[in-house]
Amino acid sequence: MIMGQNTPLFNSINLSIRRRRGTVWASKLGISYQTDETPWCGLFVAHCMSLVSDRLPANPLGSRQWAKYGRRLDKGVPGSILVFWRGSPRGWNGHVGFYVSESAGHYHVLGGNQSNAVTTAKLSKRRLLDIRWPESYPVKGERVLLSLPHPPL
Question: What mean pLDDT comes out for the span 121-148?
Fold first, then answer.
């Protein structure tokens, strides 16, 4: 029998890796991270940004707190931080990740806690709250626009 991804053993190993990853990242950042049930998209961004910046938002686990980080950009460039609303634009829930590229209606975002993993996911442009960049680094790069595949000739 081939072990699939939905087996109890795989799920147990995946849960163990998630717990360790979250606690290791949080410990290095001095952040209280009590449970793997805590949304961790902000923790992933904090871990990555700690490698290039010594300043983080007051509560980096709060995804919308990243809208106060660094400086605002008018458009996404590779590596910029995208902050999205979740549930309601006026609520407190959100999501945060890094700009990879975009298409007509979506941003392609590298982030943590996307299907409970670090992945690239498409998020609607209508949910965007802010685009941020670390103040201590010059902005480099341009928007990456993906077009629809051309029909076969």
Answer: 92
Query: Could you list the residue range(s) of the whole structural domain that residue 13 is in?
Result: 8-133
Q: Give strand pairing partners of 98.
A: 81, 110
CA distance 82 to 32: 23
- Is the residue at 139 inside a domain? no
Q: What is the CATH number of the domain that holds 79?
A: 2.30.30.140
Considering the entire predicted model, what is its pTM? Answer: 0.81
Give 147: exposed, middle or buried? Use CB within 10 Å, 0-12, 13-18, 19+: exposed
| pLDDT above 90: percentage of residues in the chain | 53
Q: Count the domains in the chain.
A: 1
Q: Would you say residue 116 lies in a domain?
A: yes
153 belongs to a structural domain:
no
Q: Which region holds residue 7: left if phi is over 0, alpha if psi is between -120 and 50, else beta?
A: beta
CA 62, 65, 67: angle at the middle one, nearest 5?
A: 140
Domain assignment of residue 3, yes or no: no
Query: Which tens digits make up the pLDDT trace of 60-107?
Result: 999 999 999 999 999 999 999 999 999 999 999 999 999 999 999 999
Please, are residues 110 and 123 in contact by the beta-carbon 8 Å criterion?
no
The pLDDT value recorded for residue 6 is 46
